[in-house]
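Subject: Asparagine--tRNA ligase structure
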Amino acid sequence: MKELVSIINVKDYVGKEIKIGAWLSDKSGKGKLQFLQLRDGTAFFQAVVFKPNFIEKYGEEEGTAKFDEIKHLAQETSVYVTGVVKEDERSKFGYELDVTDVEVIGTSHDYPITPKDHGVEFLLDNRHLWLRSKRQMAIMQIRNAIIYASYDFFDKNGFIKFDSPILSGNAAENTTELFETDYFDKPAFLSQSGQLYLEAGAMALGRVFDFGPVFRAEKSKTRRHLTEFWMMDAEYPFVTHDESLDLQEAYVKHMIQGVLDNASYALEVLERDISLLQKYVDTPFMRVAYDDAIDLLQAHEADEDTDYEHVEHGDDFGSPHETWLSNFYGVPTFVINYPASFKAFYMKPVPGNPERVLCADLLAPEGYGEIIGGSERETDYDVLTQKIIDFGLDPKDYDWYLDLRKYGSVPHAGFGLGLERMVTFMAGTEHIREAIPFPRMINRIKP
Ligand code: 4AD
Ligand code: MG
C-alpha cells in the first residue's frame, strides 16, 4: 500500500500524488464538483473531486459510478483518498487535494454531531465523538504540546521524574475535598497532589517532578474546576521561595514557547492571539504581595469597570478578584505570601510574620485564574508536628512525612501546575471541561 501522508504535512508534497487515511467531516458540492472536508487528527483540509477527471481516468461508466458513490458518502465515513496536492490561497489551510481516487474503509450512518450548533450537554454526552471536531482536536494538540514542553523543561533543568502514588493513606491538601475509597476494609484516599511524596523524593534524588491524575471532590460547579485533573508537581532541595518563583516563571514561559512552536496550527484553528502569548514569553511576570494586592483591590473597588466584592486583609480571593488583578498587570502574576489561615499545613511562615506563609499562586492573565500553587515547606520537626495538630490532622498519619524533618532536613520548595488550567489559558477556551479528553465534574462521569 502506498505510504499514508498526514494532512498536517501535505505542504511537503505540492504537485505530488499522495494517499491519506481520513474521515469525512463535511461535504458539499454541485454539478460536477464535490468538496470533501477531510480530517485525520493532525489537521482538516479540503479535497476536491472533479467528475470530468474521473471520467477521463476511469472511463464514462466507472468514472460516473465512482463520482456518484462519493456524492453520497455520509459524514464520518472513513476513507483512503488519493490525489495531487495543490497550493490554494483561497483556503485558510493553504492547500487542497485534487482527488484521483476515493476508497471507502468504514461506512457511517446518522452521525449525531452534525455541522450545525449543538448544546453543550448534548456534546458532553457525546464526548467520545465530539473529540473529532476541529476545535476539540486543536485543544488536544495544545494539551500535548504543553505536556511535551513540560518533560523537556524538567529534563533540561536536571529534574528526575518520580512517580507519586494515586492511592494514599493521608490527605495532601485538605480534608474537605477528599475522595475516600475502601482499601481492604481500611479507608484510602485518591491523591489530591503528589507533593508530600515528592518531598521524600527530593531528599533522595534532588530535583524531582511528577505528572499524573489527581482528584478533588469539588462540589463547586465552576468553569475552572474538575474533580479529576492532571497535575505536574515539582520539588527541589536547597532553594528559597524566590528562587522557586524564578524556576516557575521559566517553566511557564517554556510551555508557552513550546505551544507557539509546536501547536501553531491548533492556535490558528482556535484563533488564539499569538502576539499576546509571545508577550507573555518576552515580558517578566509580575510579583505582588498578597497584602499589597488587597490594598490595590480596595483602592480600585469603586472604579466603574470593576465588579468584585470588597475584600479585607485576611480574606481569600474569589475568581473576580483574580481576574481583575491579572488583567491589571496584563501578564502572568504571582501573588505571594497569602494568609496561613487558608493555605495548607506544610507551608513555612514568612520570617517575622507568622500570619503569612512563603507561598505563591500564579494567576494567568485574561481571566484564566490560578494555574500554579507553590510554597516553601516547613522544615522544623516540632513546628510541623504542631501545625498538623492545629489543622485537625493526626501526626500519626504523617509520621513518614515528619521523618523527612528528622534526618537531615533542608530548605526546600515546590509547586504544582494544573494541566487543564494551562490548556484553557493557552487555547483561550471558556471552560475547563474542554481541556481534558473525558472531563469529570460533579454531575458527569460518562462517557
Ligand atoms: O494550588 P493547589 O491546590 O496546590 C497543590 O496541590 C500543591 N500540593 C502543589 C504543590 O505545591 N506541589 O493545586 C495546584 C494547581 C492549581 O494551581 C490549579 O492550577 C490546579 O492545580 N487545580 C485544579 N485544576 C482543575 N480542577 C481543580 N479542581 C483544581 N484544583 C487545583
Ligand atoms: Mg491553589
